[in-house]
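Audit log entry. Action: structure prediction of a protein-small molecule complex. Ligand: fe (ii) ion. The ligand was supplied as SMILES and no pocket hint was given, so placement is left entirely to the predictor. Protonation state taken as written. Sequence taken verbatim from the request; no trimming, no tag removal. Recorded inputs:
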Amino acid sequence: MQISEHHMPQTKEHLLASRVGEIVANDFRSAHLFSQFGIDFCCGGGISLERAIKRFDVDEAQLIEALMALGIEGEKQQGLDQLPLSELLDYIEATHHSFVREKAPLLIEYSQKMVRAHGEHYDEIKPFAGWIRALIEDLMPHLMKEEQILFPAIRAMANGEQVNGCFGHIGNPINAMEHEHDQASEIIERLRTLTNDFTPPAHACTTWRICYATLEEFVADLHQHIHVENNILFPKALAI
Ligand SMILES: [Fe+2]
Ligand SMILES: [Fe+2]
């Protein structure tokens, strides 16, 4: 089994992609900094630092400089990078896959409620609900394919077993999953534009606000999920 010794370097990109709550959990000195810069890390902890900087209108360069000066590294991925493949797969299923399954029905419920209450009055609501449905309808079978086809094949390979998949080389299903990640990312970009970066308008009702906030957390987790699969899991599986 190959376990990479590579450690995630402390980079600006990694900090910006890290979730605020995770940065604080990994290094409490960041909590003090976030307070100074006016970033709410309790209620807004599920979003990436990049989003928080925009939301709380923070000077990005100053905050990044302050974080880096303290050696704060952001979300820990060294751990994931060094996990044996079977444990990495367990981790993905237990965290990201169950997160999608928990939040997806809520997104459908909230967006349908928005259509019923306001769909006739605000033009963006019906397309918004349509894209939410498209995203979920893409993601649910995607999780199934990973859990029932690709992940068992990777587990078997990691155990040194012969894999008799109907898909040929393991690179084929990996390419297919990467392609589906790209499709999900495209839908997310549409949703991001449609919702003005998940910012509810002043007249938005509570459901509308909760829906955007839930979607923002969903997108942050999905971003991390896709990153771990594309950049940690798949290269390791291909290296066997
Ligand atoms: Fe996945
Ligand atoms: Fe995936």
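Audit: result stored. The radius of gyration is 19 Å. The pocket of fe (ii) ion (ligand 1) is lined by residues 92, 96-97, 143, 146, 225, 229 (CB under 6 Å).
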